[in-house]
Amino acid sequence: MKIVLAIDGSDFSKVAIDELAALPLPAGTEVCIVNVFENPMLAAPGALPLGGTLGNYYEETISNAKKSAEDLVNDASKSLRNNNNALSITTAVVNGLPKSAILEKAEAFDADLIVVGSQGHGAFSRFLLGSVSQSLATHADCSVMIVRKRDSKEKNKQ
């Protein structure tokens, strides 16, 4: 089985990591942990350092975003390996738009399953902002497992 675990560092991603770690996965399962970082300059156009010039700001911003993404996938890899050391785990950090980059990675990896955390947006927010998990569920060529973060009331009922 080949699984793409898409994470973004949110609490929802942490729940997705935990859920995947808890699954009874068959021997030989391969997991590719992917984090997509968007160009921070595009996320906040016009964001320049106060009183300064561009200089190396752009390169430093991209470098910092990539370093954070690498830390996220490495931490997720350690967490999965602690729960199941028989997994074959690879990591990938890519720059781009999450919706398309995750689908491209899943296709290139020939994934059987994509695991992603829910963003927890209501229907109106999802309509306005778009949802990575919603897009993956709609457009992926493989199964998609969207993991929800349970609130404390739901945990107490079990």
TrEMBL record:
It comes from the Bacteria. InterPro entries: Rossmann-like_a/b/a_fold, Universal_stress_UspA, USP_A, UspA. Belongs to the universal stress protein A family. CDD domains: USP_At3g01520-like (cd23659). The lineage of its organism: Bacteria, Pseudomonadati, Bacteroidota, Flavobacteriia, Flavobacteriales. This is Universal stress protein. Coiled coil: none annotated. It comes from Maribacter cobaltidurans.
